[in-house]
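Lab notebook, bench 4. We co-purified these components, and the gel suggests they stay together. Before we commit to crystallization screens, I want a quick structural picture of the whole thing.
Request: model the full complex, all chains together.
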Amino acid sequence: MNSAEDRLLAAMSAAAEVAAAEIPAAPPLHLPPEQAPGASRGRAPRPWSRWSRWSRWTIPLTAAAAMVVLAVALVLIKDIPNGSVVPPNTSTAGPGGVPRYYVALKQLATYTDVATPPAGIVVGDSLTGGTLATFAPPAGTTFASVTAAADDLTFAVFAVASSTGSFTHKAKTTLAGRWYQVRLSPGAARPARLTLLPVKPVILLRDTTEEAGWAALDASFAAALSGSGRELAVPEWVGTHALAVQVFSVATGRLLHDWTMNDRSLNQAARPYLTWIDGDRSLALLTIRSSSAALAVTTVREWPDAGPATGDLAAVGKDVWTLRNTPGPTTTLQDCLSGAPGGVQISADGKTFSCATSTTAVHGGHVSFYTFPLAASTTVTAQGRLDASLRFRDNPRVSEYLAQVLWASPSGSPLIGMWTGAVAVAVSSSGSGSAPAAPGQSIGVISHGRFTPLHFPAGFTLVVGSGIPITW
Amino acid sequence: MDYPDTGTPPRPGLRPRADESVTALYAEHAAGLIRLGFVMLGDRGAAEDVVQDAFLGLYRNWDRLNDPAKALPYIRSSVLNGCRAALRAQARRDRRDRAAARDSWLAFDSAEAAVLLSEEHREVFGAVRKLASRQREALLLRYYLGLSPDETAQVMGISTGTVKSALSRAIAAVGRTLKEES
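Here is the predicted assembly.
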């Protein structure tokens, strides 16, 4: 347990004492007479107020004004020279056949009162541990999510600009996002190049609430570059219960497809997950319905990247897998789906998905990585394939262990995964199958029951959050 | 908004009466939930209203609750949602009257608080107040109520992974603030 956590626990304990002193007991409960079974109490519709009528006009006007400001700011980042550090090895594959080049966010975008520096990106070689390039965001902008094509050379990063330059949740600001391409040329004098993509900007937050910002940023993590790198699929919340999936041409920025899913059980707090199947052939969207984790219904819907430009997602493709949470103790699969902050990784052949579980107990911790068939036969009690399992000795500095699958090969094996203990400290150099002694973090290849660490620059730390801040 | 599990209601007569069950639950948990609301809202009366409304909602929806074991998570979610609504209303009032604006989270100013709280505690509370609301809520449910990450997730209506990451980031942010201010 770290000192901040100790201080929090002590302060919360003191708060409980104060609250107990102020409120020694509850007042009596007043219940109305028992009503007939099934009787409902309707609520009168709320009339539109004068303010709400005006607000419907002012929101688009404010957004338009903010877009002008943001367009000026974003054009400054059109083609930023990078600081090349180490010429890369030109070998094409990393250990175990996994891709070797990665793009990672230096930190996750957050909305707090605490000033955190905007996140840049680092382009690295996980075979040698070298850094190919780093890109700092321009003023008022932070990089927020990353996605990769299948060639290990083409990446897309999402950058968010604030109209005020502030990312604190109490600031009055409008957030807009744009996409950039990171293109690698191993062995060249300039091994990585960052270029603004012609895809239209996305307004994430119109001076509304921080929760809307969270949902929008969470959704940006689900964006996916197609296998060829020619198309970019972007999920976007277009209403409280409406999710759109738009596909853009990377070369021209043209909107190729715009599908929408309207469903009252869709929950913005549950981030969707989007992946391309068989290169550029079709898309798979994982959504979690219902507002309660205990009652969640997880669905993977697959549909071809073809047909009319617009459409209803409910009418194209089919649900290839549905899992309905059941009451009672959770199963391995339920833990796997709900326990990983980054969610799941669906293999590019569309046949499997991989995820991780973690437990923390007084005697230590335990993380496991699993792969399951993406098929109707995978029910809530499925055991899946255990890809690797790590046990950690008791460590008082660790309050929680987290594990994530960061990348899955097209066939579902091998995987790249990460474990981290408590608040990440640094990349561990000894995260093998044996139990590491100190809290920290390790990213490695998972194959045949083994976890083999990949290589990263000294001090490299991946911040654990609601999305995956690294991709290969 | 969190909803009770709606399935086929059990046959009448096979489950406890709503008034008895809700009253028993209230007797056991109401004081703790009012204290939770008080910690968030800084107002005893407002906290009592939120908790009363939550239990009333449970009572009205009792027939739709197909598993009585879910009553407590449901009531915790209702209290959390009620507090969120009260905080939104408070924020609207604060925008109209900026001079009176205050962050009510962990803002104790009673004589009891003066005795029980140290400067150290108030520094930590100040750091918590700088967090986003989701992080504050996760911290409060985990460290104040002592719920597990799974229970916290159920109350907040988000995944356990999101709770863990929110906690991890919140603790890091609190540590950073305390370090900056020391």
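Chain B has two domains: 10-104, 108-182. Worth comparing against the SEC data before the next meeting. Chain B touches chain A through 83 residues (CB under 8 Å).
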